């Protein structure tokens, strides 16, 4: 099997098992194993298939980039990752999409900050992270890996909408009616003020710190120097 084909196969295994365990198989396994037992099985499968995908990616031979990467492109990618980090950190508090006890209460509040941008800030954070990596490392292998991650995040978000509507009923449907799947869609339509999208302090400060730490680690671990460190490091 060609190395890139192995990456596609392991990526499909990672995505496929995630979708299968998250939706059609979840109820039956939860009844048979209990919720804790199911979470253990889910975690083991997710970690194992993710490791297989990463190993397949690392096993790719050197590949020439499909386009040249210059300073402005690095700047764009760095800003995208910063925005993705803010979305991710903002998604950790008050997120109705997370399996948390206060999900219903969170869904009844007014969407503010990252939730006024999109009701799936965590998944869009992963998607933008993947897209930014493909921009500055435009090899067939990296583009394939980024596409796998983005596909899982976006299709998973759509599946999460359906699942939450089934579990939370009108509470989720009311939340979905006041938020958008695509970032800034409601602002572009003029139905939600742009001021509502200003990130909360934990999202903004946490996102900046995460961005600084993650991009610093890029260079410290021997990978390409990334983020602001390309200019100040």
UniProtKB/TrEMBL annotation:
Residues 7-223 form the NnrU domain. Keywords: Membrane, Transmembrane, Transmembrane helix. Its main location: membrane. Coiled coil: none annotated. The chain crosses the membrane at residues 38-60, 72-93, 128-156, 208-232. It is a multi-pass membrane protein. It is found in: Membrane. Pfam families: NnrU. The keyword Phosphoprotein does not apply. GO terms for cellular component: membrane. InterPro entries: NnrU_dom. This is MFS transporter.
